[in-house]
Amino acid sequence: MATVAWKQLLLNALESNSHLKHSTFFQLATVGTNGTPSNRTVVFRGFQDNTDNIQINTDARNRKIEELKRWPSAEICWYFTDSWEQFRIHGNIDIIDGANPDPLKLQQREKSWFANSLRSRSQYLGPNPGLPRLIEQAQPEVSLDPSTGPVDAFCLLILEPDQVDYLNLKSNQRLTFKTVVSAATDKSWVMERVNP
Amino acid sequence: MATVAWKQLLLNALESNSHLKHSTFFQLATVGTNGTPSNRTVVFRGFQDNTDNIQINTDARNRKIEELKRWPSAEICWYFTDSWEQFRIHGNIDIIDGANPDPLKLQQREKSWFANSLRSRSQYLGPNPGLPRLIEQAQPEVSLDPSTGPVDAFCLLILEPDQVDYLNLKSNQRLTFKTVVSAATDKSWVMERVNP
Fold first, then answer.
1. Required cofactors, per record (chains A, B) (predicted)?
2. CB contact under 8 A, B194 and A131
């Protein structure tokens, strides 16, 4: 199966910006429980197998989980600071936490857990993110066995793109990609060149 | 009047990352007309006079204007790639286009227009952003007189922050700032240290 055009552009951008640590960081926008937008930086954890679905790890105790349960729609804004390319990727997010009833999804969560460094995994054992920090609260020494599977707070998010807007500020080109779903065929993409 | 604490942190971050062109770029999330989140990179155009209000320039023909007219709530996510600091700044946006009835706001729009380079100003004379681009469409040579005032498409956005979330990934510190409005006093901010 051929790689969809926007995914190829994204793979190229990841390659040409790979010397920058922050090239795998992007901003994820969701709609808050009160209907207002939320926006935060998260880390790209690769595509799901051979699909164009985007994987993100998060702490299940974070506010965005509540937001996504209510309204699964999200938009990634990913700006590559060296190649001056922007990808806006819209889609719905599937939340895979430890309570997920699908054994295949639990396997994916486990795989994603072990793909993290031991240091990253230890963060999921820290105090509840966003809650007030007590001054006297000592930082406990967390030691995590490398063979320990995903802890409760570890959550895998999978964003399935349905719309992509690509902008190249060097060539001043802008392309939009939209999914077309028909009963007879798989999901396919339609590309259009638009004014930047 | 003392500078509010989060603004001082932001000024420090702008200073320590000023060697990077992209340090003035941030991601702005809004809620789309269909209730889904939108997210795009925009450029910081300074604070409004001596306030903590954040200025952004945009093309009035962009989709985000429609979105903001319906729902003025927005959240900035601003990640500084050298100092590893993130600012999430939530607030409502005031749209100042050429049809604004307030002469003081029109003055601010004009000031913001002339603060742009001549090249940046010329972009507002280009074809309608986001509309299909015709292959045969030649790029017209745009020549703009330096003394020409703001064109119709030029729009000044002013975000008035009401909540800020600061995260420092080097020191692993996180602070939240919330506004408290009372009838007797001006807007004031309450800071809290929270778990990262």
1. FMN
2. yes
Which of B77, B176, B195 is opposite residue A27, by nearest beta carbon? Answer: B77
Residue B66 half-sphere exposure toward CB, CA atoms < 13 A? 8
B170 φ/ψ angles, rounded to the nearest 5 degrees: -80, -45
Contact assignment for B75 to A130 by CB distance below 8 Å? no
Question: Chain B residues with CB inside 8 Å of A142's CB?
Answer: none
| Separation in Å, CA of A135 to nearest CA in chain B | 9
* A121 close to A144: Cβ distance less than 8 angstroms: yes
Which of helix, strand or coil describes residue B149?
A: coil
Query: In this structure, is the dihedral angle defined by the CA atoms of residues A140, A141, A142 and A145, taken in order, positive or negative?
Result: negative
Contact of A122 with chain B, judged by CB distance below 8 Å, is answered with no
Cβ neighbours around A87 below 10 Å, total: 20
Q: Could you read off the pLDDT of A44-67 as tens digits, one per residue?
A: 999 999 999 999 999 999 999 999
Given a cut of 60, is residue A1 above it in pLDDT? no
Compute the distance between CA of residue B78 and CA of residue B156 in angstroms, rounded to an integer. 19
Contact: A132, B192; criterion CB under 8 Å: yes
Q: Do A76 and B36 touch (CB under 8 A)?
A: no
Contacts of B94 (CB under 8 A, 6+ apart): B72, B105, B157, B158, B160
Q: What does the alpha-carbon distance between residue A88 and residue A77 come to, in Å, rounded to a whole number?
A: 5
Domains and CATH numbers, chain A: 5-129+148-171 (2.30.110.10)
**Residue of A21, A25, A36 to mutate, testing the B interface (most B Cβ within 10 Å of its Cβ):** A36
Q: If residue B70 lies in a helix (H) or strand (E), which one and from where to where?
A: helix B63-70
User: Which residues have a Cβ under 8 Å from the Cβ of A114 and sit 6 or more positions away?
Assistant: none
Q: In this predicted complex, what is the ipTM?
A: 0.96
Give the C-alpha separation, B145 to A133, whole Å.
56
**Which of B73, B86, B128 lies at the smallest CB-CB distance from A37?**
B73
**% pLDDT > 90, chain A:** 87
